[in-house]
Design a protein that fits this description.
By secondary structure, the protein is of the alpha+beta class. It has six helices and 62 strands. The strands form 20 sheets. A five-stranded antiparallel beta sheet has the order 32-31-34-38-36, with no helix packed on it.
């Protein structure tokens, strides 16, 4: 590869090239003439290439040039020629043996294609032979293809690495080195310029590459011994693959600064402190100073000396810098000495070149050779013991502990801290920091933690440890506090309440429940005494020490009388501190009562189609002891009656629907039968009772209509019948009053002559109380309420009725004496229309109902037959009640017709 660096060489190359081409053309012409002569004889001429000169893209590739960045596969040229006879021609290209084949030719079209990449710096021209043939004649021409340059090479630095030694006293602006870089490209792409990356002390010439110290800057070995400068080499730029690019390279220049003699000595490790201890002797080394020459590349020896007068107590070795004591420490009058030490640099000629001065502080200190020590009343002591009642007051000082602590050293060696190790935050020590000596005070911080029931004694470690000394001497002492008990606890039951169950009829003195209370105090304070009190405690006793609750010897528990008891138990210590718990006692029911009928012989009247009921009572308190089941043990005749086992209702078999069927069962016409009924409870063991029930069987009465049916249905519930009857009568009274009022106002408006009325003034009627005997166990209170309500209803009706001004209705007559009956004389009873009809009163002994007024004003009479048994009493009572209410209505309306 040739390196073309001058324009003259290029011109010589070109002239030589043109001369070669001319000689080749002469040879070709001669060959053509010879061939022409021969062909004229044979009439066969050889083909030839067209010579289109430089810059042409077709022909014989004469003077053809190609850029080195041409892509592989590019069509770069077209071989073109002709045959004189017009024969078709083919093209070819050959290369010298061993040379690189860079092109390929398409034989028919002559298209030349680049098949290998080009590199001008490696090969700047390609020599090849192009051929053209018509099949018989072949023409060969030698061609040279010139490779043109592209900017594809970076500048390359020469003579690496770049290391420069520069004395520190080199003047600013001086040249210290020259860097050089070359670029193998030609033209602008081969030119190189230089510059530096971020350097404050150095500069570089852009064309020559000369590196200089920047004006105004200097080098200092003591500040920086090495500098690293980055130099950048940049080419002039050029095109590559159709784009303009500039290529650069970098190199690092290492600049070592050489030391020169220009720095004074320097002390190392300042500031300096030395100490003189109480055990030091004359000649003892106190401290050693050290200084070195600032010019470390070629250091000079250093000489040491003390400048100020130290009263002759200290001396220094001039070579080593070791400061020594020259007298005993007791002779030193000051605690602190300040020595000024000078370091002198001695040159080769034994003269002082430069000096430096520093100060050394020497302190006379006590030697830390005594640890802290605890003292008692009799000297050094490491165990202190006292006795204390539990739960002292917080903030109380433990005066039983007399402790002193001392450190015989002086100054910082006698400063130490006091610590108390043990149960956290129970006690605290005062003071916490001591210098030399102090009286130790221990104060209670948590009174609750000092508890005899938890600990009988407390143990603590009192620690004294030095603070600022390297030895950290320490001492410890044991503090033992023996606790005494106090009555600070209340007896406490194991439960807030106790639940006990005891069967009824248990004998006196039976155990019920055991209660337990504990008192953690010791001795007599921990002994507990039990007692009971409360409204439910009369039947029970408690053992004062064991807490066993039992019944009184004479006590008899009966669940039917009382099944729940509750009372309080008290646990009390010897000083009267106590606590309470509640006891709940349930008396369990036992099956100790038999079912009982009201009487052993029961009389019942049974209407065919309706049941009769018997009832027994079991006085046991709880189920199933008081649940009764009924059964028929015997009946004569048998298989006539059924009984409901739960309610005790007795009824005839479903097939018995008339009295005739009953009479046909036996030969006698007697309808009074006996049934043996048993009542049995469900307790364990089970008890039973029997009773004979005499049943009279009869048919229903002959009354027709809804009232009779209602009375039949209500024969076992007379209150229901009375209530309904009172309601009906009240409605009738209200209707009567309304009709009378309407008639009165009509007569007044029509100026009719009213019937002659006689005004009878009577005394004010006394309040009359109606008392009826209760029916079938009904209380007097219920019957009295019924009468009061009736009176109230009547009063409301009368108050709501508008009274005419005249005539005034006479007051009711005074009530008859108790037990007396109204007069037996006939009395008139007005109807709504004004007609009257005499009705004799009926004696109470007849037990027949009195007539009841109808809505139309006429009085209808109803009677009921007297029953064979007590069931007929209810009907008689209803009738009597109707009669009395009817009488009051008649008396209230009489005044209008007098």
């Amino acid at each position: 590869m040739r390196l073309k660096t001058s324009s003259d060489g290029q011109r010589m190359h070109r002239s030589h090239f043109f001369c070669s081409m001319k000689s080749m053309r002469r040879k070709q012409t001669l060959i053509l003439l010879i061939s022409l002569c021969m062909s004229m004889g044979k009439s066969d001429f050889a083909p030839y290439f067209y010579d289109n000169g430089s810059g042409s893209s077709n022909g014989n590739m004469a003077l053809f040039s190609l850029a080195e960045d041409t892509a592989v596969g590019t069509h770069v040229y077209t071989l073109n020629g002709s045959d004189p006879e017009g024969e078709p021609v083919t093209y070819g290209m050959t290369f010298d043996k061993g040379s690189k084949e860079c092109f390929s030719v398409e034989p028919k079209s002559g298209n030349v294609t680049l098949i290998e990449s080009l590199d001008r710096e490696f090969q700047d021209e390609i020599v090849a032979c192009v051929t053209i043939t018509d099949g018989r004649n072949k023409v060969v021409e030698n061609v040279r293809v010139f490779i043109t340059d592209a900017n594809d090479e970076k500048p390359e630095f020469l003579n690496r690495p770049f290391i420069v030694d520069v004395p520190e006293d080199t003047a600013s602006g001086s040249s210290i080195y020259r860097v050089q870089a070359v670029d193998r490209d030609i033209g602008s792409g081969g030119s190189v310029t230089y510059f530096l990356q971020s350097s404050s002390k150095f500069s570089i010439d852009g064309h020559s590459g000369v590196l200089r110290i920047r004006p105004g800057e200097s080098l200092d070995y003591e500040l920086a011994r090495t500098h690293y400068v980055t130099v950048v080499a940049k080419d002039g730029g050029g095109r590559f693959h159709g784009k303009y690019q500039v290529m650069t390279s970098t190199a690092i220049v290492t600049i070592n600064v050489l030391d020169t003699q220009d720095s004074p000595p320097v002390f190392v490790g300042t500031p300096y402190f030395g100490f003189v201890y109480e055990v030091s002797v004359p000649g003892s080394e106190i401290f050693t100073v050290f200084a070195k020459d600032g010019d470390q590349n070629s250091p000079n020896p250093i000489h040491y000396s003390i400048l100020n007068d130290s009263d002759g107590f200290f001396s220094i070795n001039s070579s080593s810098g070791c400061i020594s004591l020259t007298s005993f420490p007791v002779q030193l009058r000051n605690e602190l000495y300040e020595l000024n030490v000078k370091a002198s640099e001695i040159g080769p000629d034994s003269r002082v070149i430069d000096t430096a001065v520093t100060s050394v502080s020497i302190r006379v200190v006590d030697l830390n050779n005594h640890p802290p020590t605890f003292y008692g009343e009799n000297g050094p002591q490491n165990r202190f013991e006292m006795t204390l009642y539990e739960h002292p007051a917080e903030g109380e000082i433990l005066r039983g502990l007399k402790i002193t602590v001392n450190d015989s050293d002086q100054g910082a060696n006698a400063k130490f801290r006091l610590l108390l190790a043990g149960a956290s935050r129970v006690l605290r020590v005062v003071p916490q920091t001591v210098l030399n000596e102090a009286q130790v005070t221990i104060i209670v911080e948590n009174s609750a933690a000092i508890d005899y029931e938890k600990y009988q004694f407390l143990t603590f470690k009192l620690i004294a440890v030095e603070i600022d000394t390297p030895e950290r001497f320490s001492a410890t002492a044991d503090i033992v506090i023996n606790l005494l008990d106090s009555n600070d606890n209340v007896p406490k039951f194991s439960s807030e309440f106790y639940i006990a169950r005891i069967p009824e009829n248990s004998p006196g003195g039976s155990n019920v429940v055991s209660v337990t209370a504990t008192d953690p105090d010791s001795g007599l304070w921990g002994e507990v005494k039990y007692s009971i009190y409360g409204s439910g405690a009369d039947l029970f006793l408690i053992h004062p020490t064991s807490g066993i609750i039992y019944t009184q010897p004479w006590a008899s528990l009966d669940a039917e009388v009382k099944s729940k008891y509750n009372f309080y138990v008290k646990a009390e210590d010897t000083e009267g501190k106590y606590s309470l718990a509640e006891v709940f006692v349930t008396v369990l029911d036992q099956n100790d009562h038999r079912p009982e009928f009201n009487q052993n012989f029961l009389e019942k009247t049974m209407i065919i189609g309706a049941p009769v009921q018997i009832q027994a009572v079991d006085e046991d308190a709880e189920e199933p002891n008081n649940i009764i089941e009924y059964s028929i043990m015997k009946a004569d005749p048998d298989n006539i009656f059924d009984i409901n086992t739960s309610t005790g209702e007795i009824k005839l078999k479903p097939y018995i629907k008339s009295l005739e069927i009953v009479q046909n069962i036996t030969r006698q016409k007697d309808c009074r039968w006996s049934v043996l009924v048993q009542a049995r409870d469900r307790g364990s063991p089970s008890f039973s009772t029997t009773a004979v029930v005499n049943i009279d069987i009869t048919e229903a009465n002959g009354f027709k209509g809804p009232m009779a049916a209602f009375l039949m249905q209500s024969r076992d519930n007379p209150l229901k019948a009375l209530g309904l009857t009172a309601a009906v009568i009240s409605v009738m009274v209200l209707v009567t009053v309304v009709i009378s009022t309407v008639l009165y106002f009509r007569n007044t408006k029509s100026n009719r002559i009213t019937p002659a009325r006689r005004i009878i003034r009577r005394r004010a009627k006394e309040q009359r109380n109606w008392n009826f005997r209760p029916a079938f166990g009904q209380s007097d209170r219920d019957s009295g309420r019924f009468i009061d309500e009736e009176e109230e209803d009547k009063g409301n009706i009368q108050s709501s009725r508008a009274k005419p001004p005249t005539p005034n209705a006479p007051a009711l007559p005074p009530p008859p004496p108790a037990g007396s009956r109204p007069a037996e004389r006939p009395r008139t009873e007005p109807s709504v229309s004004g007609s009257r009809r005499a009705e004799p009163s009926v004696s109470r002994s007849s037990e027949r109902p009195r007539p009841v007024p109808s809505v139309s004003g006429s009085l209808s009479r109803s009677s009921s037959t007297e029953g064979r048994n007590k069931d007929g009493i209810s009907s008689a009572l209803v009738s009597e009640l109707k009669m009395r209410i009817e009488q009051k209505i008649i008396e209230a309306n009489k005044g209008y017709y007098y």
